[in-house]
Write a structure and sequence with these properties.
The protein has eleven helices and eleven strands. By secondary structure, it is α+β, with helices and mostly antiparallel strands. It has a six-stranded antiparallel β-sheet with strand order 2-3-10-5-8-11. It starts with a strand and ends with a helix.
């Protein structure tokens, strides 16, 4: 690991390490370290090649981070999730003080949320101080004990925290006003999934621009309208593959695919196997 740092932190700062039990080595989320830093103007960390993830939340003051070619300020209420094997540099920001809390973690689930939260590069997430305090406190309490039970509880706590960063409660509240629009679209897909549908058809249904519609749909459902439609069709196809002896081509047309080869590729992309293999492994 490459590390250069200066710990300009007050006596109110603390950090703790956690080692999971051997029985929990394969759980999806594991805490390795947790801490609360009250950093002064000279604090910085310049690091790479540490094989875990860092979740960092700013409580007060400001910080600055350079990561993946992006330099950005970190202000209260913002959280970042970075992969510490990649080069990262962060320090106290222009205000001269920075209070933040952090969790170092690893496990197979961390990589998934890292990709979902950062998408194609590096993004900040938002969470209220009350929500962060409750979830962070729960995780810190779990770190004070050792054993399989505690490790599983910690794994659940990190899963909850990552999910909240991906779908912030405040953002969900803002989406409530769009709930009827999304329900109308989902109901329409349910009734017309066999038809030749596209984003434009769905936009016209709810009288929204294509850009705005796709944005609110993805914010509400977590996936794009197109991905939802394809997944919906694949689920319908699964039922027909399992419950009938109809041909693959017949089923593909019946669930809305205009080409059987396109259907087979989409089915394999979604499930990892071909329709024929799915049918073979799901004989009643």
């Amino acid at each position: 690991m490459k590390l250069d740092k200066y710990l300009d932190i007050s006596s109110y700062s603390w950090s703790e390490h956690h080692t999971m039990s051997s029985a929990a080595r394969d759980i999806p989320f594991a805490v390795t370290a947790i801490g609360h830093f009250c950093a002064g103007p000279q604090y910085f960390t310049n690091r790479s090649e540490r094989d875990d993830y860092l979740l960092l939340y700013t409580i007060s003051g400001s910080g600055l981070i350079r990561y993946r070619g992006v330099e950005t300020e970190l202000v209260p209420g913002q959280a970042i999730l970075i992969y510490c094997f990649e080069p990262q540099y962060y320090r106290t920001g222009s205000k001269g003080d920075w209070t933040f809390e952090y969790i170092h973690c690893n496990g197979s689930g961390c990589e998934l949320f890292f990709r979902l939260i950062n998408e194609d590069n590096f993004h900040k997430s938002y969470l209220s101080g009350e929500e962060w305090k409750a979830m962070f406190g729960k995780i810190r309490s779990g770190c004070m004990n050792t054993g399989l039970r505690e490790d599983l509880i910690l794994s659940l706590g990190l899963h909850e925290l990552f999910t909240s960063l991906l779908f912030p409660p405040k953002a969900n509240e803002e989406l409530i006003k769009h709930e009827n629009i999304i329900k109308k679209v989902l109901s329409y897909i349910d009734e017309h999934y066999k038809d030749s549908l596209n984003n434009r058809d769905l936009c016209e249904l709810v009288h929204l621009s294509e850009f705005y519609f796709i944005r609110i749909f993805k914010a509400f459902m977590g996936i794009s309208p197109y991905e939802y439609l394809i997944t919906f069709r694949i689920n319908k196809a699964k039922a027909l593959l399992k419950e009938t002896e109809r041909s693959i081509e017949s089923i593909s047309f019946d669930v809305g695919f205009q080409n059987v080869n396109v259907f087979i590729r989409a089915f394999k992309k979604c499930t990892g196997i071909t329709p024929n293999k799915f049918r073979f492994y799901n004989i009643p």
